Amino acid sequence: MDIIDGLVGEHAVLLTLIDQIEQLSLHTPNLDELKRAVSLFGVPLRQHADIEDNVLFPAVDTQLDLAISCHQEHREIHAINRQFQRCASLVEGRTLLLEALARERKHFLREETELFPLIRKVLKKEQLDSLGRIWAQKRKIQLTALTEDNGPLAPF
């Protein structure tokens, strides 16, 4: 499994969480409850960005300015999230949070439609697979069951 397949799968999960946080932000009257939910969401989001920034992007950043731009977007979104955690009013918190969520959605779309296709052209399959193994190690996922030698996975 190559790293891009893993990261796109993470995007799907993170987008579901973004939808849930957005709904909570629109309906909760409690800023502390919202901050707790965002704090929990922040952990997998930071882990995801760290893998992109420290595993995938270094493999292509000298060849693709777009990777550097996406790395900068990670920092900008993280800064908005830090600002959200420090805010004191529910109205300000909602505004900041909805901005961060919208930027995250746009960022994922940009990666999937622009950056990842370019990376697939720049890196060889073996390189993507090698990075995928690093991704799996960081995620504590055993990929051996997914190899062609072992056949397809059993249905649930």
Structure description:
It is a single chain. The protein has 156 residues and is an all-alpha fold. The chain has a single domain (3-139), classed as nmb1532 protein domain like (Four Helix Bundle (Hemerythrin (Met), subunit A), Up-down Bundle), CATH 1.20.120.520. 80% of the residues lie in helices and 0% in strands. The protein is built from 5 helices and no strands. The chain has helices at 3-27, 31-60, 65-86, 90-122, 125-139. The mean pLDDT is 91.
In short:
With 156 residues, the protein is mainly alpha-helical.
List the helices and strands and how they pair.
Elements (H helix, E strand, L loop, with lengths): L2 H25 L3 H30 L4 H22 L3 H33 L2 H15 L17
Helix pairs in contact: 1-2, 1-4, 1-5, 2-3, 3-4
